[in-house]
Amino acid sequence: MDRQTEDYLARHFLAILDALSDGVYISDKSGKTLCVNRMYEQLTGLKREEIEGCDVRDMVRNGIFDSILNPEIVQTHKPATRVQHLKDGKTLVLSGYPVFNDRGELCFVVTFARDITILTNLNDQVEHQKGLLQKTEGQIAFMARQQKENSLTPSFASKAMGDVLQLVDRIAPTDATVLILGETGVGKDVIANLVHQRSPRRDNLMLKVDCGGISETLTESELFGYVAGAFTGASPKGKAGYFEIANGSTIFLDEIGELPLSMQTRLLRVLQDGEIMRVGSTAPRKVDVRVIAATNRNLKDCVMAGTFRRDLYYRLNVATIQIPPLRERPEDIGLLAKVFLAMYANKYRKNLHFMDMTLELLQGYAWPGNVRELQNLVHSMAITARGPAISPQELPTQISGHPQDESRFNDDILTSSKSLREIMEEIEADFLLRAIERYGSADKVAKRFQVNRSTVFRKIRKGRKSGQTGRES
Question: Labelling 450: which of 16, 142, 312, 420 has CA 20 to 30 A away?
Answer without folding.
Answer: 420
